[in-house]
Amino acid sequence: MSSTKWLNEVVWDEQGLVPAIAQDAETGEVLMFAWMNREALALTAERGEAVYWSRSRRKLWHKGEESGHTQKVREIRMDCDGDVILLRIEQVGGIACHTGRRSCFFNRHVAQGGWEAVDPVIKDPADIYTRKQS
Amino acid sequence: MSSTKWLNEVVWDEQGLVPAIAQDAETGEVLMFAWMNREALALTAERGEAVYWSRSRRKLWHKGEESGHTQKVREIRMDCDGDVILLRIEQVGGIACHTGRRSCFFNRHVAQGGWEAVDPVIKDPADIYTRKQS
After folding, report:
1. Which of A35, B1, B27, B108 shows the smallest number of beta carbons within 10 Å?
2. Residues in A 60-89 with any Cβ partner in B closer than 8 A
3. Domains detected in chain A
4. In the predicted model, is pLDDT for residue B3 greater than 80?
5. How many whole angstroms separate alpha carbon A71 and alpha carbon A95?
6. ipTM exceeding cut-off 0.85 for this assembly
7. How far apart are CA B91 and CA B93, in angstroms?
8. CB A97 within 8 A of CB A108
9. What are the binding residues of B?
10. Per-residue pLDDT tens for A16-61?
C-alpha cells in the first residue's frame, strides 16, 4: 500500500523510460545496463528483484526469468537530475551477462586501438538458456 | 596515430550517442552517468580525461572544465552489445556531482515510498563554480 508518488519524481524520457545501471552491492562491480519504464521500476521495488523494460522485445523483462540469474535488489538510487536509476543488487548465480560472464562490461579498450574481451565466460550460454522454467 | 576502427565497433543510437557510466576505479562507486558521441569518446581516449556530449547544451563537455573536477581515465570498457560505455576513472577533487557531492547517485529510495538524499555535500556548489579557469 505504499504511495507511488516517488515514481512521479523520476524524469522519464520521451519514451517513458529511464536508464538503469545494475551494480553488485558487495563488490561495486557494474554488472549491466538496461532500461525501465514506470511499471518496471514499480515492480522492482515491490518484488525486490530487478524488472526492466526490453526495448527490443517491447515488454517487461523480469531479469533471470529464463536463466534463473535474478537480481535481488538491496538498494534503489536515483541521480541528481532524477533521470537515471542505480540498482545495488545481489546477482543470483554470479552471472549477469547473456554471454555467461559475470558483467556485461568485459570489453576493454586497448592502447593499440581495439577492444579486447578480458573477462572469462563462467558458464556456456547454451547451458544457461536451456534451463527449464520451474 | 592510433586507428579509429574501434570507434566503429560502438553501436551509436539514432542520435549518434551512447550512454556512458563513470565509476571510481579504486572504490567501484558509480559516480555519474552521461552521454558521448563519437568525438567525445575519441577525445576521452586521446586525452585520458573524460569528455562527454552535453545533450542540453548540444556541445562537447570536458568534464571539470569549469569546476576543475576532471576525471582521469584508467580504463574504457564497452558492454556485450557494444551500446554502453563504462569509464573507470580517478575523480580529481573527489567530487563528480554538480551538487557538490561525491556521486550523482545520492538519492536512495526508502521503504515509505520516497527518495532521501543520503550522501553529504562535500563542497558548496557556489564555491565550486566560481573557480576561475586557469
Report:
1. B1
2. 75-82, 84, 86
3. 5-120 (3.10.20.810)
4. no
5. 10
6. yes
7. 6
8. no
9. 79-81, 83, 97, 104
10. 999 999 999 999 999 999 999 999 999 999 999 999 999 999 999 9
* A42 lies within 8 A of chain B by CB: no
Residues of A in contact with B104 (CB under 8 A): 79-81, 84
Question: Taking CA atoms, what residue in B is nearest to A84?
Answer: B33
For residue range A89-104, list pLDDT tens digits in order: 999 999 999 999 999 9
User: Is residue A4's pLDDT more than 90?
Assistant: no
Is pLDDT of A134 > 50? no
Whether A86 and B109 lie within 8 Å, measured CB to CB: no
Q: Give chain B positions within 8 Å (CB) of A23.
A: 28, 30
Does residue A132 have a pLDDT over 70? no
Contacts of B123 (CB under 8 A, 6+ apart): B95, B100
Using a CB-CB cut-off of 8 Å, the residues of chain A touching B30 are 21, 23, 28, 30, 86
Please give the Cα distance from A113 to A118 (Å, whole number): 15
C-alpha B114 chain-centroid distance: 26
> What nine digits make up the cell of B73?
581515465
> How far is Cα A46 from Cα A55, in angstroms, rounded to an integer?
22
What is the predicted pLDDT for the residue at A133? Answer: 47
Hey, are the CB atoms on A78 and B107 less than 8 Å from each other?
yes
Among A63, A84, A67, A80, residue whose Cα is nearest residue A20: A84
Residue B133 has pLDDT above 70, yes or no: no
